Amino acid sequence: MTNTIIHKAETRGHANHEWLNSMHTFSFANYHNPERMHFGALRVLNDDTVEAGMGFGKHPHDNMEIISIPLEGDLEHKDSMGNVSVIRHGDIQVMSAGTGIFHSEYNKNKDSRVKFLQIWVFPNKKNVTPRYDQITLNIADRHNKLQQILSPNPEDEGVWIHQNAWFYMGTFDKGIGTEYKIKAKGNGIYAFILKGDVTINGQVLSTRDGFGIWDVDSFSIKADSDAEILLMEVPMEF
């Protein structure tokens, strides 16, 4: 029997720190909801807006796969592995925190905001050597189809993480649809609607809504307006 869960955009946790406006799909920092701790191996989905010139100071992570997806603006990254980089819309950044890292993230621009998704996935291996990677994808390759942005395989398209997970992004014109087939038995999908109106497996969704579906082999996706979506396939048990 197919199982689903819906998280409407307005039900998310909210933290406004003036320099940072953050919406939390799952429990994070001062937002604690025992019914929203994670979706399978997907632990954090934060929808962040950082004011001009502001950012996150140096802070630690360990034993977590951390993915950043910039949606607007330029985000500067520095870490204890010696990486200094800027990620922009179209880029995907990944860190395997493993045995432990420190990093900082700042809005590089003094006159515009940065918007990005911060995503944490529980790893399937503990205490790995910390790792950083960043790639630039061709956004045109996700027009009216799903573009793979993450997988468990370093040879595949996109970045890779220490988990049996696959992420896809798609930008669809109104009326266009597709079907998604689950990659691995026991996995579920969490869909996040970045923009527009979408129907997934009969469930009508709007901008910034989240929808989880599991115990299913495949499901349909249809754009009810011009729309942009992120699909995250993760193990439900890990």
Explain what the structure shows:
The protein is an all-beta fold and 238 residues long. It has two domains: 127 residues, Jelly Rolls (Sandwich), CATH 2.60.120.10; 96 residues, Jelly Rolls. It is built from no helices and 22 strands. It has a seven-stranded mixed beta sheet, with no helix packed on it. A seven-stranded antiparallel beta sheet has the order 2-3-4-11-6-9-12, with no helix packed on it. It has a four-stranded antiparallel beta sheet with strand order 5-10-7-8, with no helix packed on it. It is globular and about 45 Å long. It starts with a strand and ends with a strand.
As a whole number of angstroms, the C-alpha radius of gyration is: 17 Å
Superfamily (CATH H level) name of the largest domain: Jelly Rolls
State the end-to-end distance. Answer: 21 Å
Alpha plus pi helix count? 0
Domain count: 2
- Describe the largest sheet: 7 strands, mixed
Q: Which short descriptors sum up this protein?
A:
seven-stranded mixed β-sheet; Jelly Rolls; globular; 238 residues; 0% helix; seven-stranded antiparallel β-sheet; mainly beta; single chain
Describe the structure concisely for a colleague.
The protein is an all-beta fold and 238 residues long. The protein is built from no helices and 22 strands.
